[in-house]
Specification:
Keywords: Membrane, Transmembrane, Transmembrane helix
Distance between the termini: 23 Å
Structural class: mainly alpha
Helix content: over 70%
Radius of gyration: 17 Å
Protein name: Permease
Number of strands: 0
Transmembrane segments: 5-23, 35-53, 73-95, 101-120
Order of helices and strands: HHHH
Number of helices: 4
Largest sheet: none
Length: 124
């Protein structure tokens, strides 16, 4: 039970740090730093772990199925993310540095995997 509370507290702390970085950069009329989305992705991990902790504590076939299907769904989501980024880059809709692109893609991948586990745990 205590580790579940720890996940929730870590999620609140990481969400507040990410929110502070985003709001403070917007108040200075700057773009938010690209690593703020990584911190937001860590907050998503903490909240998903908080929700999934009682279920993932059991090592049964249901949890293996949820993990397997979550990774399968995330693979196709990642392909869609790459296609969208390639199309937007070819039409010069935005200009990103390589490190910004990597921060965004890693964050999207992390959030997609863990949120798909939450959705699939409700379904199965």
């Amino acid at each position: 039970m205590y580790s579940r509370v720890a996940y929730f507290i870590c999620g609140i702390i990481l969400l507040s740090i990410s929110g502070f970085l985003i709001v403070s950069s917007m108040m200075n009329n700057n773009y938010p730093p690209s690593y703020s989305i990584l911190i937001l992705a860590l907050a998503v991990i903490a909240f998903c772990a908080y929700y999934l902790f009682p279920q993932f504590k059991q090592k049964d076939e249901r949890m293996k199925l949820i993990r397997q299907k979550g990774m399968f769904v995330s693979y196709f989501a990642l392909v869609i993310y790459f296609v969208i980024f390639i199309i937007l880059n070819n039409f010069h809709m935005f200009m990103l540095t390589t490190i910004q692109f990597l921060h965004i893609m890693v964050s999207l991948m992390i959030m997609t995997v863990f949120l798909s586990w939450v959705v699939l745990s409700k379904r199965y």
